[in-house]
Each structure stands twice: as C-alpha cells, then as structure tokens.
Write a structure and sequence with these properties.
This protein is of the alpha/beta class and about 525 residues long. It has three domains: about 1-30 and about 35-45 and about 190-315, NAD(P)-binding Rossmann-like Domain (Rossmann fold, 3-Layer(aba) Sandwich), CATH 3.40.50.720; about 55-185, no CATH class; about 320-515, no CATH class. Helices cover about 50% and strands about 15% of the residues. The protein has helices at about 15-25, 40-45, 55-90, 90-110, 115-120, 125-145, 155-185, 200-210, 250-255, 270-280, 320-355, 405-410, 420-425, 450, 470, 480-495, 500-515, and strands at about 1-5, 10-15, 190-195, 220-225, 235, 240-245, 260, 285-290, 305, 310-315, 360-365, 375-380, 430, 440-445, 445, 465. It has an eight-stranded mixed β-sheet with strand order 5-6-4-3-7-8-10-9. Strands 1-2 form a two-stranded antiparallel ribbon.
Amino acid sequence: MCLLKNGMRTVEPINARSMLDAAATASADRPPVERRRRLSPAALAVANQKVGRAYSPIVIAGVVRVIDFVMLSAIGIALYFGYAVPLSGFYWEFLAAIFGVAATAVICFQAADIYQVQLFRGHLRQMTRMISSWTFVFLLFIGASFIVKLGSEISRLWLTAFFLTGLAALLAQRLVLRALVRSWARQGRLDRRTIIVGADQNGEELVQALNTQDDSDIKVLGVFDDRNDDRAMDTCAGSPKLGKVDDIVEFARRTRIDLVLFALPISAETRILDMLKKLWVLPVDIRLSAHTNKLRFRPRSYSYLGEVPTLDVFEAPITDWDLVMKWLFDHVVGFVILVLALPVMGLVALAVKLDSPGPVLFRQKRFGFNNERIDVFKFRSMYHHQADPTASKVVTKNDPRVTRVGRFIRKTSLDELPQLFNVVFKSNLSLVGPRPHAVQGKLQSRLFDEAVDGYFARHRVKPGITGWAQINGWRGEVDTDEKIQKRVEFDLYYIENWSVLFDLYILLKTPVALMTKSENAY
C-alpha cells in the first residue's frame, strides 16, 4: 500500500496502526460523531436495491480446476477398470498415467488461459481452446508412450474412449458452468461494485474509461465529492453524484461496496489523506486512479482494472481463498469444540436454571462484520429482571445485577460457550477475531467509537469468540482510555497479520489466558 508524499512524490508505506495514531491525534478537535447519517435520495435508491453476496472469481476458477482434475481422473479410472483390467489385469502404472494426464490437462488449460470468469461466460473461445489443449495432452501422452516403448501395451480402444469421453464431459461441464456464471452475473454476484471519489473532469474520464472496457466486472454505482462549487458535477459519464465523502461509510454499510476508487490528482495529497482517515475503517479495496496523472511508475507498481492503472492504498482483509480457509476452520474446528463442550454446557445451563428464575440463554445485540447488528448468544449471568440487552451499563466488580453462578461463568468465560452456535450454525461469528462489543458499549459516558477514532476498523473482519487482544490480557471491564485503545491496537494487528496458524495459536492459548489473565473479567 502506498501514498505519494509531498512534491518529491516518493512512495511511503501506510498501515492501519499509523492511520489509527494519526486519527487519534486529531480526535480531540473533532465534533461528536453522528451515529447514523442521512443519505441523499440518489444514494438511498442505490442502497435499497437488493444485492446478493459476491462470489470470488479467484475461488471460482480454483474450484473449476479441481473439478477438471477430479472429473478427468474419474473418467480415466472408470474406463480402465471397466475395459482394460478384465482383459490384461491391473497395473499401478496406468493409474499414475491417468493422474498424470489429468494434471497435464489442467496445466495446459491454464497455459491456454481458459480459467477466467470472463471466458466462462463465453462459448466459442473457451471451447476451441479446450479442444485444442485436450488434443495436445493426448498427443503428448502418445508421444511419451512411444519414446518409452509402451505403445503396444496400451489399449487403443481405452485411449480413444478416454479422449472422447473426457472431451464430451469437459464440453458438457463448460456448458453448465456457462449457464451458472451468466446467472451469477445477472444477479450481480460477479460485479465489483465501485464508487468513485471526485465528481470532476478527472472523475468523468475515469468513469468513461471503466464503462467502455469489454468484459469488465466493474460496476460504477456513483460518485462522491465534498465540493459544492462548479468543479463538482451532478453526474459523471452518466453516474450520479450520491453525496459527500462523509456519506461513504454509511452508504457502504447499507449496501455492498467492493472498491473505492479515487479520481483525484495525486497532487491533492492533503485532501486524499483527510478522506482516507475516514474511509480506511471499511472492509473494501481502496485505490488511487493513475488514469489521468502524468506521473508514471514502472508497470509493476500498478494494479490494473482492465486498462486503467491504479495504485493500491488499502486492501480488504481476508478475501478469496483466505476467506474459504477461515470459513472451513471456523465450521470444522467449531463443530468439534461444540460437540466436546456439550456436557459442560449442559451443566452450566442446569446451574443457571437452578440459581435464579428466567431463561438459560441470553441474546445481546452486538456489532458484527462491517457494523452489522447481530444477535450473540450467551448463558444468562444476570438476574432476569435486570437484564441489559444493549449493555448500556458496564458490568463492574461486585455488580449486584450478576448472579452467583453468573460471577463464576463470567470469570471463566463459560458464559460465552453458546456463541459456538453463532459460529457453526449462524456464521455471523468466527472462532477467532476481534471481540464483538455491545452496540451501546460505553467508556464512562462515551460510546466506544467516540472514545477511539478508527474504532470501527476492527469490524473489517468477522468478530470472534476469542481474539489476540483477549489472550494478551485485554478482556473484561473497559473503564479507561488505555483499555479500549489497546484492544483496538491488538485487533488491528490481528487483522493485518491473519493466518490459519495464527488463529490456531490464539485458540490454543485461550484456555491458558483464561486462567492467568482474568483479573479484569467480572
């Protein structure tokens, strides 16, 4: 990630923590944060459109590769056992050859560049490339067999059947895939929903360049600009002005946004930095367009949207295959933990029921991914008539609202075990991630997002049952600026350094942290 600095235009790295520190220094001079901004009628019209969850082209292409390999291997093995084995017996070498043919086919398809979602939508181009590649694979196999003098031992009928059946299966699979991809495209699941910052001539040229590209997945929703003078247009190449930059955060929380693209000239460094301090909390890609800038770096410095060069500033965390891996980790490991924890949960539920009247489980509104409000399950730890669903009052030491059993299960975090249902069945929590704070969580009289500027950046990923901040001692009551500041810092570190192994490490460290670092948990 990079920004251009001063007149020298040197590249300087930016990370979330430095942005947090910069924002914190200015927080004292800022007016109180408005909890929910009003959007313009044009922005509301876009936000109210029904939009499905996006599908990753990278994951789709990867899944198609796996399907190709498995399907071709299965066809070759089925034909081998159905025809060749009864005639000449079984040889392991043939199985190795079949897997080799399937793997070589995938490699050739990749070399032919047919694993692209744009090509999946088409018909003729991908079919001709596929037929050519599949034919080349068999010619290569026949040539290799001749060189090692195995031609007489290979059944010509089996080889012909493998070629024709494999080709027919590939063509049929691509027809089905073509129908699926076109259906997903109509639903908008393959679009990169984009907003442009800068409603001026640069913005209009950028929108035109994006809209005129063939097979582009960019869908421009509109433009945003703070200027109210003649420099700010009401529309840019047909895309309406939706509001000011301050409206983007609220807009992105009402509808799916995948990319924020700045059309401002690089010379407007101060304006860009001020805007980035507001937008970096969003779980979206943020780029600077270099389309109209005269300054040029080496081609490798850019990422391209078709033919439009851009400079990456922030990237959405945990996307594509990382997201798939985290989903599998949450659901597989979460299900195992849930099964193992059921006896303990049964005992806790019985203790809660016998200790005080009221329901065993308690639902609380908390912030989820991208500030979505979610219901989090917990064992009830307070007296039922004193329940606080929004956590408007912080639980303190010797709080009279907490029951006898409640004190124990809060101290040991056993009250959090029902959140495994959120992970496994509702998928609105992860096993590991920033802890979801209550919607009305406060530090003294200030809401958390008012106490720490950049607080909502921790919601760029799905919240978790445990997290990096918690195993480092930052759990329990939040009664000082340092405690909430440290939580945010540790959460941002986790987001920037996420990996499956990091999740596993935090998960394994959690029981130790519960026993040794529970002094703040009431």
